[in-house]
Design goal:
The protein is mainly alpha-helical. 75% of the residues lie in helices and 3% in strands. The chain starts with a helix and ends with a helix. The model has no long low-confidence stretch (mean pLDDT 93).
Length: 153
């Protein structure tokens, strides 16, 4: 686990460095109308670097090297990973709304063991709400599939 913590902290420190460097490129100062574009990302990058450096120091000082994950702990992770991966794959042929409805229905029923009425309400209601918010109110087009095309969107 120590090696994984050190590797993760190192990668995130590098990512924070990229954020800081790009923020410096676009400007972190204060302009006439307020903070410049890089002001907030710069400080978020600095906080990220400091936090990850602290995690790295803690991992370095740790004397035990327990395994990163055991078989028992991996099972719940895979219960989330495989359906989520399938949902992402299904976005292209089915569209975001249908893929997310299928994902929510499957996940609520399989993992949550919820009743069919709650599954149907959430699996239909949440994608419908997201559709209304993004497509009609914000006018942000999301990936659509054949169902939306059949409905005229």
């Amino acid at each position: 686990m120590r090696a994984v913590d050190l590797a993760t902290a190192s990668i995130l420190i590098l990512l924070g460095g990229v954020v800081v460097a790009d923020s410096l490129r676009i400007g972190i100062g204060w302009g006439t109308d307020g903070p410049r574009s890089g002001f907030f990302p710069f400080w978020l990058g600095v906080i990220m670097i400091l936090a990850c450096a602290g995690i790295g120091v803690q991992a370095w000082r740790r004397s035990t090297d327990k395994p990163f994950v055991t078989r028992e702990r991996l099972a719940p992770v895979l219960k989330v990973l495989w359906p989520a991966t399938l949902m992402v794959i299904l976005i292209t042929p089915l569209g975001l709304y249908v893929a997310s409805a299928l994902y929510m229905a499957f996940y609520m029923r399989w993992v949550g063991r919820h009743g069919w009425s709650a599954v149907a309400l959430c699996a239909i209601g949440i994608p419908l709400l997201v559709f209304v918010v993004f497509e009609t109110w914000f006018l942000v087009p999301m990936p659509k599939g054949p169902l939306e095309a059949w409905l005229g969107y």
